[in-house]
Amino acid sequence: MTFTSSPIPRPAGPPASATPLRDFLAGVRNGVDPGYIVVPRSLAESMPLLWQQQLVHLIAELQHAYGHLPWPVYRVVPSRPELLVDLDEEQLAEVGCMVEIDSDGELCYRDRQGRLIEHPERHQVLVSCMDPIPRARAGQLPPTGAQSKSQPKPPQAQQQQQQQPRKPKAAPIWPTE
After folding, report:
1. Which of 2, 50, 129, 139 is the most exposed place for a label (fewest CB within 10 A)?
2. Residue 143's closest CA among 58, 45, 76?
């Protein structure tokens, strides 16, 4: 065994985090809010078998660790952020707000307790919307975006995709009824 006076080499890259899930979720937009992570069942069931097996294992571990707590049944409502001033009366009622005209003829927005909402043009709320993610009964949805390791694209499909110009996606139309 030989000893050296050289320092031990440090691994390259940022240091490991003590809160990796929190750190990762802070940058994720889809299905995450400050209190919950929501994974659409139809998408999870459409993932490759190995991915599903890993998720089953993780959920089983979570249930084993915290199954003794009195978990409620959660109701998940597809929602989208909207500015308060863009809502109709039904949507205002849904989020617990009302609008009235003050003595100067200006619109005033109030919350459930009757308190005036300052700067309603900057006040964002969540309103329910049609779910853009197909239900499980529609069959499996092949993942797009990042390709899974178990289903790589053939080289000719990669070349065709690179040659085709991207078309802009149309904005979804949400029914207001």
Report:
1. 2
2. 45
Could you say which DSSP state residue 124 is in? E
Cα angle: 159, vertex 161, 167; to 5 degrees: 150
Tell me the pLDDT of the chain averaged across its residues: 82
Token pair for 148: 């899974």
3-class secondary-structure state, position 52: helix
Rounded to two decimals, the pTM is: 0.61
DSSP state of 65: H
**CB contact set of 49 (below 8 Å; sequence gap of 6+):** 150
- The sign of the torsion formed by the CA atoms of 96, 26, 46, 164 equals positive
- Give residues with Cβ within 8 angstroms of 126, minimum separation 6: 79, 80, 81, 82, 95
- CA distances to 16, 87, 146, 161 from 142, in Å: 33, 35, 11, 16
Query: What number of other Cβ atoms are within 10 A of residue 42's Cβ?
Result: 17
Structure tokens at 4: 């050296």
